[in-house]
Amino acid sequence: MTGDTERTTQTTQLYERLRTSILTLDLLPGQSLAERGLEARFEASRTPVRAALVRLEAEGLVRRDGRSFAVAPIDLAEIGQLAEYREAVETAAVRLAVQRASDDDLDALADELTSTADANAAGESVQAGGDFHSRLAELAGNPFFSTAVAASLRRLERTRWLEASSAGSRDHARDEHLRILEAVRARDADRAAALIAEHIRGTHERLREALSSEDWRRAHAVS
Protein backbone atom coordinates (compact mmCIF):
# COMPACT_ATOMS: atom_id res chain seq x y z
CA MET A 1 0.00 0.00 0.00
CA THR A 2 2.86 2.35 0.83
CA GLY A 3 4.38 1.76 -2.61
CA ASP A 4 1.05 2.54 -4.31
CA THR A 5 0.71 5.75 -2.28
CA GLU A 6 4.22 6.85 -3.17
CA ARG A 7 3.60 6.22 -6.88
CA THR A 8 0.33 8.18 -6.73
CA THR A 9 2.07 11.10 -5.01
CA GLN A 10 4.94 11.01 -7.49
CA THR A 11 2.50 10.92 -10.41
CA THR A 12 0.62 13.96 -9.08
CA GLN A 13 3.81 15.92 -8.49
CA LEU A 14 5.17 15.03 -11.92
CA TYR A 15 1.85 15.87 -13.58
CA GLU A 16 1.81 19.30 -11.94
CA ARG A 17 5.42 20.05 -12.90
CA LEU A 18 4.93 18.95 -16.50
CA ARG A 19 1.66 20.82 -16.77
CA THR A 20 3.22 24.05 -15.52
CA SER A 21 6.13 23.63 -17.94
CA ILE A 22 3.68 23.23 -20.84
CA LEU A 23 1.44 26.12 -19.81
CA THR A 24 4.36 28.51 -19.42
CA LEU A 25 5.92 27.32 -22.71
CA ASP A 26 9.02 26.03 -20.98
CA LEU A 27 8.07 22.91 -22.96
CA LEU A 28 7.11 24.17 -26.41
CA PRO A 29 4.26 22.98 -28.64
CA GLY A 30 5.44 20.02 -30.69
CA GLN A 31 8.38 19.25 -28.38
CA SER A 32 9.07 15.55 -27.93
CA LEU A 33 8.46 14.08 -24.49
CA ALA A 34 10.58 10.95 -24.41
CA GLU A 35 9.71 8.95 -21.33
CA ARG A 36 13.31 8.07 -20.53
CA GLY A 37 14.30 11.71 -20.82
CA LEU A 38 11.52 12.71 -18.43
CA GLU A 39 12.54 9.98 -16.00
CA ALA A 40 16.04 11.45 -15.87
CA ARG A 41 14.92 15.08 -15.82
CA PHE A 42 12.45 14.64 -12.98
CA GLU A 43 14.18 11.71 -11.25
CA ALA A 44 11.02 9.63 -11.54
CA SER A 45 10.29 6.02 -12.40
CA ARG A 46 8.56 4.96 -15.60
CA THR A 47 5.09 4.22 -14.20
CA PRO A 48 4.44 7.73 -12.75
CA VAL A 49 5.87 9.32 -15.91
CA ARG A 50 3.50 7.36 -18.14
CA ALA A 51 0.52 8.04 -15.83
CA ALA A 52 1.24 11.79 -15.82
CA LEU A 53 1.51 11.86 -19.63
CA VAL A 54 -1.78 9.99 -20.06
CA ARG A 55 -3.47 12.46 -17.72
CA LEU A 56 -2.09 15.41 -19.70
CA GLU A 57 -3.20 13.74 -22.92
CA ALA A 58 -6.77 13.68 -21.60
CA GLU A 59 -6.54 17.46 -21.08
CA GLY A 60 -5.33 18.06 -24.63
CA LEU A 61 -1.90 19.28 -23.55
CA VAL A 62 -0.02 16.19 -24.75
CA ARG A 63 -0.58 13.92 -27.73
CA ARG A 64 0.84 10.60 -28.82
CA ASP A 65 3.58 10.78 -31.41
CA GLY A 66 3.98 7.23 -32.65
CA ARG A 67 5.06 5.19 -29.64
CA SER A 68 6.12 8.31 -27.75
CA PHE A 69 4.49 11.57 -26.64
CA ALA A 70 4.85 15.22 -27.61
CA VAL A 71 3.50 18.53 -26.37
CA ALA A 72 0.28 19.16 -28.29
CA PRO A 73 0.34 22.01 -30.82
CA ILE A 74 -1.88 25.02 -30.23
CA ASP A 75 -4.92 24.45 -32.43
CA LEU A 76 -6.52 27.70 -33.64
CA ALA A 77 -9.61 25.87 -34.91
CA GLU A 78 -10.22 24.28 -31.52
CA ILE A 79 -9.76 27.62 -29.77
CA GLY A 80 -12.44 29.11 -32.03
CA GLN A 81 -14.80 26.22 -31.37
CA LEU A 82 -14.33 26.58 -27.63
CA ALA A 83 -15.06 30.31 -27.84
CA GLU A 84 -18.37 29.55 -29.57
CA TYR A 85 -19.16 26.89 -26.97
CA ARG A 86 -18.31 29.17 -24.07
CA GLU A 87 -20.46 31.98 -25.42
CA ALA A 88 -23.49 29.69 -25.75
CA VAL A 89 -23.03 28.16 -22.30
CA GLU A 90 -21.99 31.22 -20.32
CA THR A 91 -24.64 33.58 -21.69
CA ALA A 92 -27.31 31.06 -20.72
CA ALA A 93 -25.70 30.54 -17.32
CA VAL A 94 -25.45 34.24 -16.51
CA ARG A 95 -29.13 34.75 -17.35
CA LEU A 96 -30.01 32.11 -14.78
CA ALA A 97 -27.56 33.60 -12.28
CA VAL A 98 -29.38 36.94 -12.59
CA GLN A 99 -32.59 35.16 -11.58
CA ARG A 100 -31.26 32.77 -8.97
CA ALA A 101 -28.20 34.21 -7.24
CA SER A 102 -28.84 35.73 -3.84
CA ASP A 103 -27.54 39.17 -2.90
CA ASP A 104 -25.19 37.46 -0.44
CA ASP A 105 -23.82 35.25 -3.22
CA LEU A 106 -23.12 38.28 -5.39
CA ASP A 107 -21.56 40.20 -2.51
CA ALA A 108 -19.22 37.26 -1.94
CA LEU A 109 -18.28 37.19 -5.63
CA ALA A 110 -17.60 40.93 -5.52
CA ASP A 111 -15.35 40.39 -2.51
CA GLU A 112 -13.46 37.68 -4.41
CA LEU A 113 -12.89 40.04 -7.34
CA THR A 114 -11.65 42.74 -4.99
CA SER A 115 -9.28 40.35 -3.25
CA THR A 116 -7.66 39.40 -6.57
CA ALA A 117 -7.38 42.95 -7.91
CA ASP A 118 -3.62 42.88 -7.33
CA ALA A 119 -3.05 39.62 -9.22
CA ASN A 120 -0.08 40.75 -11.28
CA ALA A 121 1.45 37.41 -12.30
CA ALA A 122 0.07 35.48 -15.25
CA GLY A 123 -0.68 32.39 -13.17
CA GLU A 124 -2.53 34.40 -10.52
CA SER A 125 -4.56 36.20 -13.18
CA VAL A 126 -5.51 32.96 -14.94
CA GLN A 127 -6.62 31.48 -11.63
CA ALA A 128 -8.62 34.57 -10.67
CA GLY A 129 -10.31 34.77 -14.07
CA GLY A 130 -11.17 31.10 -14.08
CA ASP A 131 -12.56 31.34 -10.56
CA PHE A 132 -14.81 34.24 -11.60
CA HIS A 133 -16.27 32.44 -14.61
CA SER A 134 -16.67 29.18 -12.71
CA ARG A 135 -18.32 30.84 -9.72
CA LEU A 136 -20.70 32.79 -11.94
CA ALA A 137 -21.71 29.54 -13.65
CA GLU A 138 -22.28 27.92 -10.25
CA LEU A 139 -24.70 30.73 -9.37
CA ALA A 140 -26.91 29.57 -12.24
CA GLY A 141 -27.95 26.78 -9.90
CA ASN A 142 -27.40 24.05 -12.49
CA PRO A 143 -24.29 21.87 -12.05
CA PHE A 144 -24.12 21.06 -15.76
CA PHE A 145 -23.27 24.69 -16.49
CA SER A 146 -20.47 24.87 -13.93
CA THR A 147 -19.02 21.56 -15.15
CA ALA A 148 -19.08 22.73 -18.77
CA VAL A 149 -17.44 26.07 -17.97
CA ALA A 150 -14.71 24.49 -15.85
CA ALA A 151 -13.91 21.93 -18.57
CA SER A 152 -13.68 24.52 -21.35
CA LEU A 153 -11.49 26.85 -19.29
CA ARG A 154 -9.16 23.99 -18.46
CA ARG A 155 -8.90 23.10 -22.14
CA LEU A 156 -7.99 26.73 -22.90
CA GLU A 157 -5.60 27.20 -20.02
CA ARG A 158 -2.41 27.35 -22.10
CA THR A 159 -3.73 30.14 -24.32
CA ARG A 160 -5.18 31.91 -21.28
CA TRP A 161 -1.65 31.99 -19.83
CA LEU A 162 -0.45 33.61 -23.04
CA GLU A 163 -3.07 36.34 -22.84
CA ALA A 164 -2.44 36.92 -19.14
CA SER A 165 1.26 37.49 -19.79
CA SER A 166 0.32 41.06 -20.81
CA ALA A 167 -0.45 43.50 -17.99
CA GLY A 168 -2.83 45.35 -20.31
CA SER A 169 -4.78 42.19 -21.03
CA ARG A 170 -4.98 41.37 -17.32
CA ASP A 171 -6.37 44.83 -16.52
CA HIS A 172 -8.81 44.65 -19.42
CA ALA A 173 -10.18 41.29 -18.31
CA ARG A 174 -10.53 42.46 -14.70
CA ASP A 175 -12.50 45.54 -15.78
CA GLU A 176 -14.81 43.43 -17.92
CA HIS A 177 -15.43 41.03 -15.05
CA LEU A 178 -16.46 43.96 -12.86
CA ARG A 179 -18.90 45.24 -15.48
CA ILE A 180 -20.43 41.79 -15.89
CA LEU A 181 -20.91 41.50 -12.14
CA GLU A 182 -22.47 44.98 -11.97
CA ALA A 183 -25.07 43.92 -14.56
CA VAL A 184 -25.85 40.73 -12.64
CA ARG A 185 -26.24 42.67 -9.39
CA ALA A 186 -28.58 45.08 -11.21
CA ARG A 187 -30.62 42.01 -12.27
CA ASP A 188 -30.22 43.03 -15.92
CA ALA A 189 -30.07 39.67 -17.71
CA ASP A 190 -29.82 41.11 -21.23
CA ARG A 191 -26.91 43.38 -20.35
CA ALA A 192 -25.10 40.67 -18.38
CA ALA A 193 -25.43 38.22 -21.29
CA ALA A 194 -24.28 40.84 -23.81
CA LEU A 195 -21.26 41.76 -21.70
CA ILE A 196 -20.13 38.19 -21.14
CA ALA A 197 -20.53 37.44 -24.86
CA GLU A 198 -18.48 40.54 -25.71
CA HIS A 199 -15.85 39.51 -23.17
CA ILE A 200 -15.48 36.00 -24.62
CA ARG A 201 -15.38 37.26 -28.21
CA GLY A 202 -12.85 39.96 -27.38
CA THR A 203 -10.58 37.54 -25.56
CA HIS A 204 -10.75 35.13 -28.48
CA GLU A 205 -10.02 37.85 -31.03
CA ARG A 206 -6.95 39.07 -29.13
CA LEU A 207 -5.65 35.52 -28.88
CA ARG A 208 -6.37 34.79 -32.52
CA GLU A 209 -4.47 37.85 -33.69
CA ALA A 210 -1.48 37.05 -31.49
CA LEU A 211 -1.36 33.37 -32.39
CA SER A 212 -1.92 33.96 -36.09
CA SER A 213 1.26 35.96 -36.58
CA GLU A 214 3.60 34.07 -38.89
CA ASP A 215 6.61 34.42 -36.60
CA TRP A 216 4.70 33.09 -33.58
CA ARG A 217 3.28 30.18 -35.57
CA ARG A 218 6.69 29.12 -36.82
CA ALA A 219 8.29 29.43 -33.39
CA HIS A 220 5.58 27.65 -31.40
CA ALA A 221 4.05 25.03 -33.69
CA VAL A 222 0.60 26.56 -33.98
CA SER A 223 -1.68 24.60 -36.30
UniProtKB/TrEMBL annotation:
<dbReference type="Pfam" id="PF07729">
    <property type="entry name" value="FCD"/>
</dbReference>
<keyword id="KW-0805">Transcription regulation</keyword>
<dbReference type="InterPro" id="IPR000524">
    <property type="entry name" value="Tscrpt_reg_HTH_GntR"/>
</dbReference>
<feature type="domain" description="HTH gntR-type">
    <location>
        <begin position="8"/>
        <end position="74"/>
    </location>
</feature>
<dbReference type="GO" id="GO:0003677">
    <property type="term" value="F:DNA binding"/>
</dbReference>
<keyword id="KW-0804">Transcription</keyword>
<dbReference type="InterPro" id="IPR011711">
    <property type="entry name" value="GntR_C"/>
</dbReference>
<dbReference type="InterPro" id="IPR036390">
    <property type="entry name" value="WH_DNA-bd_sf"/>
</dbReference>
<dbReference type="Pfam" id="PF00392">
    <property type="entry name" value="GntR"/>
</dbReference>
<dbReference type="InterPro" id="IPR008920">
    <property type="entry name" value="TF_FadR/GntR_C"/>
</dbReference>
<dbReference type="GO" id="GO:0003700">
    <property type="term" value="F:DNA-binding transcription factor activity"/>
</dbReference>
<keyword id="KW-0238">DNA-binding</keyword>
<protein>
    <submittedName>
        <fullName>Transcriptional regulator, GntR family</fullName>
    </submittedName>
</protein>
<dbReference type="InterPro" id="IPR036388">
    <property type="entry name" value="WH-like_DNA-bd_sf"/>
</dbReference>
